[in-house]
Amino acid sequence: MGQILIQRILAGALRTNCYLIYDAETKKALLVDPAEEAHKISRIVDEGGFVPEAILLTHGHFDHIGAVEELRERYHCLVYCLEEEKEVLENAGYNLSAMFADSFTVTPDILVKDEQRLIISEFSIQVIATPGHTKGSCCYYFPEDRFLISGDTLFEESVGRTDFPTGSTSALVRSIREKLFVLPSDTPVYSGHGEPTTIEHEKKYNPVAGVQ
Fold this sequence. Notes:
alpha/beta; six-stranded mixed β-sheet; globular
């Protein structure tokens, strides 16, 4: 097993961060939140010789799932999401595609639970349920490699919107403060939009850090 590396792929009109997480030695990989532009994502995968083992979804909004079906079929890999997010993925109103794009839905293959430990090929992953942006939003923590994929829950000095279907501001604040701010302070955070940050930085500068 080699070093685990992360490549960010900007995709779609909203410049969503799709992450290619891969083992530098075996080239086995995970795809996280494949947004639009399946052709762009697959070109990077194929040119790099990567072998996707799974697709992980942090939540079900259209700008994070637009390429799922094409990539699932191309690479014959399973799609994972938190069990509470299944309804969002399978409802074009909840996933916002009915509002902002051509309506579509995605049916996940594997439903996971809060605090579940996933072993997928070379990757060890802890599921962290972080409701708020949507009711089934989650983050993926890689404890052995010490980094967090936060989706649209936590951004650099910001947080995800809560005014869309199934969102909740109070739930989001609790999720961040009780589930994410307890991680090691030096944990790198790779979010669904924008630049990477760290838990330490967000505990100092994120607006929710001061919410009582």
